[in-house]
Amino acid sequence: MSGAAKYHPASPGLQASWYEASARARIAGLLDPGSFGEFIGPAAREESPHLDIFDLPKQFDDGMVVGRGMLSGKRVLVAAQEGRFMGGAFGEVHGAKLTGILRAARELGDRNAAVLILFDTGGVRLQEANAGELAIAEIMRAMLELRAAGGRVIGLIGGRAGCYGGGGLISGCCSGLVVSEQGRISVSGPEVIETNRGVEEFDSKDRALVWRTMGGKARHLLGLADAFADDAMASFRAAALALIETAPRFDLANMQAEQARLERRLDRFGACADAREVWAALGVNAPEEIPDLDAAAFVEIADALAEKSHDAR
Questions:
Q1: What share of the chain is helix, strand, coil (3-state, %, to 5)?
Q2: Sign of CA dihedral 293, 294, 296, 298
Q3: 66, 184, 186, 60: which is closest to 117 by C-alpha?
Q4: What is the pLDDT of residues 135-183, one digit of tens each?
Q5: Full-model pTM
Q6: How far apart are CA 178 and CA 76, in angstroms?
Q7: Are residues 9 and 28 in contact, defined by beta-carbon separation less than 8 angstroms?
Q8: CATH for 5-249, among 3.90.226.10, 3.40.980.10, 3.20.20.140, 3.30.930.10?
């Protein structure tokens, strides 16, 4: 991945909305101004080879923007999904670009440069199902190989499509995750759960239920996401910088500690039927108020609960 083309977009501003921005606008707001160089950009016209069969429109970057740049003077590699193109879904080219940048970080001596993945995806494209599923497996393998070699991969989730399906699996392999209230993380989406288990199990039209089950606040309180950001570019930038420094190593001790944490979580919350019951069990005094809290008030509660949990261990 040599010969990166310099990209100089107009900065969206550090207070611009992450949720509303495009993939390239998120990169511009996240990285140092003028530092991003794109690999395999639109001029290369690396389009999906499968969409013509279904008479579907293609995009010259296939909905995945990859390159390198600087974050507060630190060298980083970046992959950003465009949720406005096919819901950010993984296909052959889309997935190969993410696999490539992860392999480049390991093989080309960039292990000291963190990889930032800006997730915005509904999962795998149905039109490229086999190729998309293979891409998910290749991405996960490349990510874990990079982490085993000492690299760090930070995921940022706060886009319109959320982080579903294979994207949810990939996010679970990251060194650390930043999520906003608008970010949602799940392997199965609301409609998939309802279709397979019935509306009694999960009503996909109940937006409050969806957000308190899969939304950023719920995921952060359960420890699935390591940092919580408000919707501003500056907040994601600050959280990513912090996680680059503090994300845990990928070694046996940390894997065993994470497994033990998940076992404790299942024992503690396995019988809960709703996120509000989980929050009450965590020690939140007024769990019904969590969805309405602004970011600062929510982070204060989340940090206090995390400290209490750490002291208990």
A1: 50, 15, 35
A2: positive
A3: 66
A4: 999 999 999 999 999 999 999 999 999 999 999 999 999 999 999 999 9
A5: 0.90
A6: 16
A7: yes
A8: 3.90.226.10
